Amino acid sequence: MVSSVSSSITSALGMGYGIDSSSIVSGLVSAVRAPKNAALTSKESLASAQVSALANASRALDNFSTALTTLLEGSDYSGQPASSNSSIANVSLTRPGALSGLPVELEVKQLATSQVLKSTTLADSSTAVGLGTLTLSTSSGSYNIVIDSSNNTLDGLAAAINDAGAGVTANVITDSSGSRLVLKGGIGENEAFTLVDGGDADGDLLRFTWDGAAGGMTQTRAAQNAVIVLDGVETSYAGNSITGAIPNVTIDLVKATPGATITISEEQPTTTMQDLVTEFADAYNTLWKALSELTVAGTDGAKGGILASDSSVRQMKDMLSRLASTPLVASGDYRSLAQIGVRTNKDGTLEVNKDTLAAALAANPAAVTAMINPPVKDASNPGLGGALEAIKDKLQDKDTGALVKAQERYKAVQKKLVEEREKFETYMNGYEERLSSTFSAMDTRLASLKATQSYLEQQIEIWNNSKN
Questions:
Q1: Could you tell me if 72 and 151 lie in one domain?
Q2: How many CB atoms lie within 10 A of CB 364?
Q3: How far is CA 176 from CA 96, 123, 170, 181, in A?
Q4: What is residue 124's DSSP assignment?
Q5: Containing domain of residue 340, as a range?
């Protein structure tokens, strides 16, 4: 009976077999850690995903706004000057922006030209030209051209003039009759030049002089300014590329046609503007659908979007949804996208009525262009790019922007979860240490009980043997 009882005690306490305290502690720690760790991991993953999704949404809006603004800055989406005869004059925008004062009538009476001189003909380019100094005078100053034994040839004289850097180009032209020096100055009457005796030129070198009226060289063309007539007003310009005559228009003169006039007018980008509106709607819809996926609410057990409860993205969608009806200019035949056929569908996407848009562009293309891309942009006339940029700026304002505030909230949650994780790990380390200590003490106690058990078993055996 006593043996049976002692056996039961031994089996219950694990005496004689030892206790695997390490496995027991590990199992208990895992049992406590697992649910809390799973909950923390889930929260950390959600917070990380929300930060990333919100950053992507903000970046998508930023890219959309920047791309549209950059596109509208191109010349394809603003009124363009046009010439009725490009063989007489070509026209272009001096810079992206407004046109005014068109149409105008243009007469090109005279092109700007450069002065050209030619010398007498010599045998060839190595023929001696004489010795001494010539003085070359231009709008930039006077330059001494020295000819001595080292450069006393037609080629040497041309090189000396070119090396002076006076703005006069010297070339030696050779044909069947021989070689001659040709000098060419800059364009415009102020670029006329002279080449005269520097004080010691010999008789041969004097063959290459010109004082502005006569000399050893022959003037084949005089330097002169361009002369044009705009709407009856005659003006003169030093070059053939003229800016300032018409605001923001560069006129490139091609041919003088005294007595004949051409028209410079403004053309509106109807085809490109129609493409722009359609492409804008497509890009808007891509952004809208992406935002909708992030904010869709979960139903019937289905999981919602990662930002379903985020107010900042809902605010972004709300602001974007009003874009079609937002006034883009303060006045004009057309003030909003809705007036040229852009409407908002029930799902929030945009749809372009191509017939309405085409009719608006046909009726008043300048008004459509001015609405979408105002020549002068301000708070009252933001245009499409400005209106979208205003939405972006409000949402991304560093102090009050909803997207910025939302990012701060999510990052604060991440920081709190990091702190919670650290506290949890500290607690679990202490919990494991306490369990290990408890089981270590139990091991010691059991070892003592095991020694007592052995002693009792010996005494029982002696007692049983004595009875026999």
A1: no
A2: 16
A3: 52, 10, 20, 15
A4: S
A5: 1-79+269-468
End-to-end C-alpha distance for the chain, whole angstroms: 17
Rounded CA gap, 382 and 372, in Å? 9
Residues 384 and 439 reside in one and the same domain:
yes
Residue 459, helix vs strand vs coil:
helix
- 329 and 426 in a single domain? The answer is yes
Tens-digit pLDDT profile for residues 250-282: 999 999 999 999 999 888 777 788 989 999 999
Compute the radius of gyration of the chain from its Cα atoms. 46
Judging by DSSP bridges, how do beta strands 104-110 and 178-187 pair with one another?
Answer: unpaired
Same domain? 148 vs 184: yes
Backbone angles phi, psi at 151, to 5 degrees: -140, 30
Which phi and psi (to 5°) does residue 92 adopt?
A: -155, 165
What would the pLDDT profile of 271-320 be if each residue is shown by its tens digit? 788 989 999 999 999 999 998 888 887 665 556 778 888 889 899 999 99
Do 440 and 346 lie in a common domain? yes
139 and 207 in a single domain? The answer is yes
User: How many other CB atoms are found less than 10 A from the CB of residue 454?
Assistant: 12
Q: Is 314 in the same domain as 430?
A: yes
Residue finishing a domain among 241, 267, 293: 267
Are residues 260 and 107 in contact, defined by beta-carbon separation less than 8 angstroms?
A: yes
| 122 and 208, same domain (yes or no) | yes
Backbone angles phi, psi at 179, to 5 degrees: -120, 145
- Mean pLDDT, consecutive 10-residue segments, the chain of 468 residues? 39 48 78 84 83 87 88 76 94 79 93 97 96 96 97 97 97 96 97 96 96 96 97 96 93 96 86 89 92 77 74 91 94 94 93 94 88 88 93 92 88 87 86 79 73 78 76
Cα 19 → chain centroid? 70
Q: Are 310 and 292 in contact (CB under 8 A)?
A: no
Closest CA to 188 of 224, 160, 164: 224
Confirm if 228 and 91 have CB atoms less than 8 A apart: no
Domain boundary among 190, 221, 252: 221
* Pair type for strands 241-246 and 249-253: antiparallel
**Which residues, listed in sequence order, are joined to residue 230 by a DSSP beta bridge?**
106, 233
Residues 311/52, Cβ–Cβ less than 8 Å: no
Among 101, 93, 69, 106, residue whose Cα is nearest residue 269 = 93
